[in-house]
Amino acid sequence: MAVQITTAEAVKKIVDQSSVMIGGFLGAAVPLKMIDEIAAAGVKDLTVISIGAGYRGGGVDVGKLVLNKQIIKYVTSHVGTDPNLIKQIVGEEVELELSPMGTFVERVRAGGAGLGAVVTPVGMGTEVEAMAQKITVDGKPYLLFKPIRADVAIIKAYRADPLGNLQYQGMSNTNPIMATAADIVIAEVDEIVEIGEIACEQIGTPGIFVDYIVKGHRYEERKMIYEEMWIATNKL
């Protein structure tokens, strides 16, 4: 059974030099409260694993950790939306590990499934080659990427029950696969409901993968935050 805790309690699971998976992409399906808590806690030298950088920079979602300079390594598929992160990468303040988006997802899935590698032709002939091992299979060249796992995964879902079963709404994004690929999984949810209120066919992540549940913003609050964020960042 998952344990319901506060965001302040949950952030104590993350220490300096932790590897942290963060679900969501460009503001969508992102665990906003937990990111705020990590920023406030000031834990440093983090390896952050996220499919994309913060939305338009400006210190929103993952971008808050960038502005705080809490990240020492960024494992991702997309950094182009955060000029602050790009500046830190170019200045060698942050190490970048880049793989194509589909490959990134497969690497996390492989980490959760206990597989040894992801082998793909995607990225051949690009700068991604430098971040993978080249192998030949049946006379054809491929790139071999190691699986991705983390000390902690912070994911976002719509609802949870006390068993830790999660229901997603709309775009679940990278959250379901990240729930399988970390030693500790913290789910930030809009609502916590009674056992049985989430029907079996609505469960996107079974509770066996979830260690802790934290209460995030209500749907209406998140909608307001995103509207304000998109208006503000589109002025950048």
Descriptive labels:
236 residues, alpha/beta, Glutaconate Coenzyme A-transferase, nine-stranded mixed β-sheet, three-stranded antiparallel β-sheet, 25% helix, globular
Highest-level CATH class: Alpha Beta
Enumerate how many helices there are, as a single number: 7
Low-confidence sequence ranges: none
Number of strands: 12
Kindly estimate the percentage of residues that lie in beta strands according to DSSP: 25-35%
> Helices and strands, in N-to-C order?
EHEHEHEHEHEEEEEHEEH
- What is the CATH-assigned architecture? 3-Layer(aba) Sandwich
Could you estimate the helical fraction of the residues in percent?
25-40%
Intertermini distance = 44 Å
What is the mean predicted local confidence, pLDDT? 92
Number of domains: 1
Instruction: State the fourth-level CATH superfamily.
Output: Glutaconate Coenzyme A-transferase
Q: Give the quaternary arrangement of the chains.
A: single chain
Biggest β-sheet strands, sense, barrel = 9 strands, mixed
Structural class: alpha/beta
Remind me, CATH topology?
Answer: Glutaconate Coenzyme A-transferase
Label the overall shape: globular
Provide the gyration radius in Å: 18 Å
